[in-house]
Every structure is written in C-alpha cells, then in structure tokens.
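Lecture notes, part 5. Sequence design as translation. It can be helpful to think of inverse folding as translation between two languages: the language of shapes and the language of residues. The source text, in structure tokens, appears below.
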C-alpha cells in the first residue's frame, strides 16, 4: 500500500492505524501510515486484509482508526540502513553492548534494557530508560510509550524499496521499522533505540541512533523466542514528557531517503 500521496501536498491528511488482537486481547499485529483523504478507504482495506492474514493467527478483534491530522507532518529523511555481519546471538549481543557503551550508555542502563527485552510478557509500547542511571522514565510502565502518527510518502517508499531490494530486505516490516526508528531517533533527548521483534520467527532486530543510523542486528534472539520489545535510551536530564509528546502526538512523514548498505563487520562501525 502506497502511503501518503506526494500529489496531496496541500490536501487534508489522515493517520490510518490498524490494531489486531487475539481472543485473550493479546496483540497480534499493528501498522499505520499517513494518507490523503482520497486513499483512506484503500488504506483501511489494505490494513484490514493484513490483519486477517497475519502469521500469528486470525484476530478476534481488528480496530481501524482514521484520524484527521490537525498539524502538517514534520518531514524527515530515513536513517541510513546497514546490517551487522554476525553469525550467532553471542556475537550480536557483544556488538550491541559495545556500541551502546561507545555512545555513552552505562552498563547499568544496558543491563536494564536487556531485562526489559527478555521479560516474559512483551510490552506493546517502548520502555524509556535513563542512559546513565538505567531507571525507567516512561510514565506508565505497563503500557510504555507508543510512537504513532508516522508515515512515508509514496515517492520515498518507492525509493526505499528500490534501495533495499539488492539486499533482499524490501519488505513492509523493514520499511515500517525504519520509519518508526527514524521518528524515534529524531525525538528530543533520545540517545539510542534497541528493538527486538516479538515475532518468534523473526530474529533480526535493530539498534538505531541518529549518527549510527539503523543497524540491523541478525541473531538478536534465538528462533522460537516469543519475547521482544523496544527500549529507548534518554540522555540524563532529558525531559521525558517532551520525548513522549514528539513520539505520540507529533505527526512525521519520511519524504527523503538515506543510504542503504549491505552487511558490515563490527570493526567498520563508527558511532560518531
Ligand atoms: C518488528 O517485527 O516489529 C520489528 C522488526 C525490526 C527489524 C526489521 C528489520 O530491519 O529486519
């Protein structure tokens, strides 16, 4: 589904969001985009079909929300994409820890993040963790923070798909994770984000910062592991409410696209 039409620069824009849950209310799938009014019905149909055919099972309830944007979305350029060369979970965890330390995140905060990501019940929202103290900063620890009101223009989407294709990663999952990571990296106070999918069959996550870009992390967890989640590290002294306001209430759209590279060894990764 092509997201926001570039043709509608001045037309009213809408956020279209899908959330599907199972019989016990458990999360099955979610997705969203920003679209001009002329394609809202198409977008709603596309997301409904996606919810109905998800590998995690048929949803008991699917909600589609259509919300008119009251402010124009902030235009962003997608983060640079690379994939770490790694052959197992140990190597990946070592790399994640090394990079997080290099960007100034304390050992205590890193351990706290892994604690969140390995908790038995995955949160739907992201945990916000102080990069120095390691303490949780999100106001509602059960809910976490949910980045929303995000999309990609149809031109940027087509460009990104073309750039991702040579590495066989031109998928909705990568596009959507990259869109979200780009919004998170641009938020006030954010130092880094670490993401592990809660899909048991998907073992590639990512570590993102504004300078590092979007670094895909294969073997971030073992196959079959249901655990996952997102952790956003905030610099010491950052105002968590400003971060939440950007993530949850400020619409953004990716209109330009950064570079996409293939696999890189850790020695080639610089963080500044
Ligand atoms: C998710 O499944 O929701 C997150 C996937 C993150 C990694 C996507 C990728 O770059 O392969």
């Amino acid at each position: 589904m092509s997201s926001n039409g570039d043709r509608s620069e001045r037309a009213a824009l809408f956020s279209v969001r899908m959330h599907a849950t199972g019989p016990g209310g458990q999360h099955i799938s979610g997705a969203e985009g920003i679209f001009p009014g002329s394609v809202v019905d198409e977008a709603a149909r596309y997301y409904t079909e996606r919810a109905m055919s998800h590998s995690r099972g048929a949803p008991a309830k699917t909600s589609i929300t259509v919300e008119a944007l009251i402010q124009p979305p902030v235009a962003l350029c997608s983060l640079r994409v690379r994939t770490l060369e790694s052959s197992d979970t140990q190597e990946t965890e070592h790399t994640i820890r090394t990079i997080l330390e290099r960007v100034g995140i304390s050992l205590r905060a890193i351990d706290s993040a892994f604690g969140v990501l390995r908790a038995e019940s995955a949160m739907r929202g992201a945990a916000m963790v102080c990069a120095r103290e390691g303490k949780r900063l999100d106001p509602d620890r059960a809910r976490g923070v949910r980045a929303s009101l995000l999309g990609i223009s149809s031109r940027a989407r087509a460009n990104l798909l073309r750039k991702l294709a040579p590495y066989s990663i031109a998928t909705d999952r990568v596009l959507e994770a990259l869109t979200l990571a780009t919004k998170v990296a641009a938020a006030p106070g954010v130092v880094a984000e670490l993401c592990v999918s809660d899909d048991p069959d998907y073992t590639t996550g990512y570590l993102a910062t504004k300078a590092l870009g979007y670094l895909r992390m294969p073997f971030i967890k073992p196959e079959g592991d249901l655990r996952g989640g997102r952790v956003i590290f905030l610099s010491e002294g950052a105002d968590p409410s400003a971060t939440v306001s950007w993530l949850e209430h400020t619409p953004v759209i990716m209109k330009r696209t950064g570079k996409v590279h293939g696999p890189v060894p850790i020695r080639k990764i610089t963080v500044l």
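The translated text above is only one of many valid answers, since several sequences can fold into similar shapes. The longest helix spans residues 89-102.
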